[in-house]
Amino acid sequence: MNSRQIEQLLGSIYDLRRRTASEAAFLKRSLERFSRSGQVLLDVGCGYCRFHPTITACGLSYIGIDKNVDICEENTSRGIRCLPSDAAGKGIDDIDVLLLSHIIEHFDYQNLIPFLNLYLPKLRVGGVLIILTPIQHRGFYDDFDHVKPYNPAALRQAFVDRRAQTQDFGIRGTYSEEDFWLKRDTPWHSFHAERWMHFIKIPLSLLSTITLGRIGRLTGYGMVLKKLDE
């Protein structure tokens, strides 16, 4: 098997994994379960809107927000509605789904609360908040601007079970947890590119895929929270 065939095989395995045991797959399942066609999703910190195809395929209207003006302009040129975050979504209210994908880990908790409170009031009662975030793992601080990992129990304490804490952190609204998913990456993870590594990558990547990620390294999670009141 030559290098091109190896890369094609790995590409096929990774594509299968994206469709079955990835963040996009979890998001698709969540939208199919907790939203309906015609509703509006606000993607805060959207970047290049990687979930836009998944979201629109579920029939939802998409609005992205990002602090990088150049990225907003590029998204707009692609026909995607994208607003700069300095507007903080002014004029956008009664959102049905609020998506925070790989956002909260960029804040310490003192700064995270006011950030959340810019957008949580835009979510209608009965709407859902979807959070995707990494946990502490050996690659967490490879991202220069990662500040703090938030474990699932921490989010439950802040959003759901407020009686478990000695102080109210001030998060706007009350919520119930509706769904939870653990993200696992393939067991191999190496910066080495030697050819022999393919003999490890292919079977372990396939094993992780066919077990829907149950065999692999735990690196993050997804959580769905339903807004109960203001």
SSE string: HHEHEHEEHEHEHE
Strand order of the largest sheet: 3-2-1-4-5-7-6
Q: Kindly provide the name of the CATH class.
A: Alpha Beta
CATH architecture: 3-Layer(aba) Sandwich
Broad shape: globular
End-to-end C-alpha gap: 59 Å
Helicity, as a percent range: 25-40%
Keywords, separated by commas or semicolons:
single chain; 230 residues; alpha/beta
If you had to describe this structure to a student in words, what would you say it looks like?
This protein has 230 residues and is α/β, with parallel strands linked by helices. It has one domain: Vaccinia Virus protein VP39 (Rossmann fold, 3-Layer(aba) Sandwich). It contains seven helices and seven strands; from the N terminus they run H-H-E-H-E-H-E-E-H-E-H-E-H-E. The chain has helices at 3-20, 23-34, 52-57, 69-77, 109-119, 152-159, 198-210, and strands at residues 40-44, 61-66, 82-84, 95-101, 123-134, 174-185, 217-229. It has a seven-stranded mixed sheet with strand order 3-2-1-4-5-7-6, with helices on both faces. The longest helix has 18 residues, at 3-20. The N and C termini lie far apart (59 Å). Residues 194-198 have low confidence and may be disordered.
List the helices and strands and how they pair.
Layout: H1 3-20, H2 23-34, E1 40-44, H3 52-57, E2 61-66, H4 69-77, E3 82-84, E4 95-101, H5 109-119, E5 123-134, H6 152-159, E6 174-185, H7 198-210, E7 217-229
Parallel strand pairs: 1-2, 1-4, 2-3, 4-5
Antiparallel strand pairs: 5-7, 6-7
Helix pairs in contact: 1-7
